[in-house]
């Protein structure tokens, strides 16, 4: 099915105590779609993607991932997390394991795959992010860009249906941003469904099917990158784009 | 005629030393096992459980160890559970150690960056794997200097066991000293024995601490 919906969020509300982080969010992501989420800090964009794999609980509304309704049951959370890979701003590699072990752990523990197969898969994805020769090293021995590529490979080893990226280049030195973005572009070209929280507007122009702008927990506007950048509808969007594009 | 401090007396001290080491080992291994459970419950995220464990820790950290040993030895005897001195102090020290080690490890578990658990959850790893594979290996490293420090305190603290009639190193020293009237010599030897046990551990502990500090700088 070409038009299969991988993610459906409806009427999602999320509070941290008295502070409302997500307000009535509706979002549908089709299989193969690439979405870029942007917005000022505190707008709820990270919170939104963290709700998709239940790193954050929602208080109202519904989230369906690959046909599975996400509720509070461990089983539902499990099923959804098997389908959703995530890459974090601060990499979050496991420092006491080698690159290879980082990539093998989850398939062995969560997918119950044999060691040899897990290693073959890990090496395949490490090659794919062009870091196969560093497999025996520890994360601390790698540069930030290399670490983030390992984190991408680690997520891919679980063979997710959709990848979430939470500001994957924000913690990187400028010269390393490109290698990570190139990896993400490669992934996009291979047809992976992706939701990326990022301020890399060049990346958004190049790979996004839709760009979504958030502020104060709302989705303010969304559109194809061309229209979104050339002709933003809302004043809030124009102001935001003015601020970030001024630096580019 | 009062005996002089000789080989038999030294042998008696060595016996006391053996009991000190044995009591320390039992209390430490038992305390580690129970302390791990305490630390896991204390960080479980269940409010009621966490509160109950806090009270448990509060009781054993907030009352004298001496009192706890009394309660185990005499208190349990009152309700009909007559324990040998060794078993009683072993239980007392184990329970006490579980509270202290539990707190040390609770702190270490919480010192592991949150992102580590989040990454593990995002990868679909369950609580047991998250703890065993990700959090605890890092927490143990963080807690090692404090854990070794506690072990040193424990070795010296076992001398309290003498209060219920258990003859460990310090008590053995007292007995020999009373027999020989050579307190300086006897307690000198006793002190040297404690030192030989504790000093290498302390040294190892501070080395671990230095290595950890170095690793954190990177």
From TrEMBL, chain A:
Annotated InterPro entries: AAA+_ATPase (IPR003593), ABC_ATPase_HisP-typ (IPR030679), ABC_transporter-like_ATP-bd (IPR003439), ABC_transporter-like_CS (IPR017871), MetN_ABC_transporter-like (IPR050086), P-loop_NTPase (IPR027417)
Residues of the ABC transporter domain: 7-241
GO molecular function, one term: ABC-type amino acid transporter activity
Pfam short name (any one): ABC_tran
Domain of life per record: Bacteria
Protein keywords: ATP-binding, Nucleotide-binding, Transport
Primary role: Involved in beta-(1-->2)glucan export. Transmembrane domains (TMD) form a pore in the inner membrane and the ATP-binding domain (NBD) is responsible for energy generation.
Family: Belongs to the ABC transporter superfamily.
Protein name: Amino acid ABC transporter ATP-binding protein, PAAT family
Lineage of source species: Bacteria, Pseudomonadati, Pseudomonadota, Alphaproteobacteria, Hyphomicrobiales
TrEMBL record, chain B:
Any one GO biological process: amino acid transport
Main location: membrane
Taxonomic lineage of the native organism: Bacteria, Pseudomonadati, Pseudomonadota, Alphaproteobacteria, Hyphomicrobiales
MF-aspect GO terms: transmembrane transporter activity
Keyword presence, Transport: yes
Gene Ontology, cellular component aspect: ATP-binding cassette (ABC) transporter complex
UniProt keyword Transmembrane present: yes
TM segment ranges: 20-41, 53-77, 83-105, 139-164, 184-204
ABC transmembrane type-1 domain residues: 17-202
Subcellular location: Cell inner membrane; Cell membrane
Descriptive protein name: Amino acid ABC transporter membrane protein 2, PAAT family
Highest taxon listed in the record's lineage: Bacteria
PANTHER family per UniProt: BLR6398 PROTEIN, MEMBRANE COMPONENT OF AMINO ACID ABC TRANSPORTER
Coiled-coil residue spans: none
Protein family membership: Belongs to the binding-protein-dependent transport system permease family. HisMQ subfamily.
Gene3D superfamilies named among the record's database cross-references: MetI-like
Topology term for the membrane: Multi-pass membrane protein
Keyword annotations from UniProtKB, A to Z: Cell membrane, Membrane, Transmembrane, Transmembrane helix, Transport
């Amino acid at each position: 099915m070409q038009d299969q919906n991988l993610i459906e969020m409806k009427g999602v509300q999320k509070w941290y105590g008295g502070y409302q982080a997500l307000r009535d969010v509706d979002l549908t992501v089709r299989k193969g779609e690439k979405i870029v989420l942007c917005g000022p800090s505190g707008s709820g964009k990270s919170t939104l993607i963290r709700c998709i794999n239940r790193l954050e609980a929602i208080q109202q509304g519904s989230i369906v991932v690959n046909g599975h309704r996400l509720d509070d049951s461990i089983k539902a959370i499990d099923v959804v997390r098997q389908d959703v890979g995530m890459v974090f701003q601060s990499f979050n590699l496991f420092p006491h394991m080698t690159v290879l072990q980082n990539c093998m752990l989850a398939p062995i523990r969560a997918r119950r795959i044999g060691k040899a197969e897990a290693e073959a898969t890990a090496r395949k994805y490490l090659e794919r992010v062009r870091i196969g020769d560093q497999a025996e090293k520890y994360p601390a021995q790698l540069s930030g860009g290399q670490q983030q590529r390992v984190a991408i490979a680690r997520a891919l080893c679980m063979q997710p249906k959709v990848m979430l990226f939470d500001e994957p280049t924000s913690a990187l030195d400028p010269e390393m941003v490109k290698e990570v973005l190139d990896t993400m572009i490669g992934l996009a070209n291979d047809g992976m469904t992706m939701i990326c929280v990022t301020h890399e507007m060049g990346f958004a122009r190049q790979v996004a099917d839709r760009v979504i702008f958030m502020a104060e927990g709302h989705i303010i506007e969304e559109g194809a990158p061309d229209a979104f950048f050339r002709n933003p509808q809302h004043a809030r969007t124009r102001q935001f784009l003015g601020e970030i594009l001024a630096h580019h | 005629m009062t005996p002089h401090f000789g080989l038999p007396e030294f042998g008696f001290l060595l016996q006391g030393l053996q009991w000190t080491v044995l009591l320390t080992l039992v209390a430490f291994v038992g305390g580690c096992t129970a302390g791990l459970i305490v630390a896991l419950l204390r960080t479980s995220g269940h409010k009621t459980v966490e509160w109950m464990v806090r009270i448990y820790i509060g009781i054993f950290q907030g009352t004298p160890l001496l009192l706890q040993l009394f309660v185990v030895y005499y208190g349990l005897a009152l309700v009909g559970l007559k324990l040998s001195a060794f078993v009683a102090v072993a239980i007392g020290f184990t329970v006490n150690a579980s509270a202290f080690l539990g707190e040390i490890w609770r702190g270490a578990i919480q010192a592991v960056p949150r992102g580590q658990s989040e990454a593990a959850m995002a990868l679909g790893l369950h609580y047991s794997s998250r703890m065993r594979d990700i959090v605890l290996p890092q927490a143990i490293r963080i807690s090692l200097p404090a854990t070794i420090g506690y072990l040193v305190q424990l070795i010296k603290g076992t001398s309290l066991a003498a209060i219920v009639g258990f003859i460990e190193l310090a008590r053995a020293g007292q007995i020999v000293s009373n027999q020989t009237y050579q307190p300086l010599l006897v307690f000198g030897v006793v002190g040297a024995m404690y030192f030989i046990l504790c000093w290498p551990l302390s040294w190892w502990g501070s080395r671990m601490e230095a290595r950890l500090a170095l690793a954190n700088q990177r």
